[in-house]
Amino acid sequence: MQTARPNLFTRDDTFFGVCQGLGEDLGIHPNLLRIPLAALLLWNPVVVLGLYLGLGLLVAFTRWISPDPIPAATPQAALPAAAEPDSRPEEMAMAA
Questions:
Q1: Residues spanned by the domain of 19
Q2: Which candidate, 16, 13, 6, places its Cα nearest to that of 54?
Q3: What's the pTM?
Q4: Domain membership flag for residue 24
Q5: Residues 6 or more apart from 95 whose CB is under 8 A from it?
Q6: What does the angle CA 26 – CA 68 – CA 30 come to, to the nearest 5 degrees?
Q7: Does 86 map to a domain?
Q8: pLDDT in tens, the chain (96 residues)
Q9: How many domains does the chain have?
């Protein structure tokens, strides 16, 4: 059974979910994007906010094109019996 994932843009714990979405798309932890973003925000806020909004549009577009980029993990119990390795040792033919 798949668990429902909330929309990145409507969650309470993110601000548009831009770093979270980029982290999921790139396969990195979102904090590796949030820390440089915060540091750059102190240096040049106008450019960084423009970049953040542009990246937000990019994340929205990628979510529109591919709504679920991360496939759900298949639990071991849901695998068919044929996929499990055979635990019985194979019998060897006897030489005459």
A1: 8-67
A2: 16
A3: 0.56
A4: yes
A5: none
A6: 35
A7: no
A8: 456 666 655 556 566 788 888 888 889 999 999 999 999 999 999 999 999 999 999 988 888 887 765 555 555 555 555 555 555 666 666 666
A9: 1
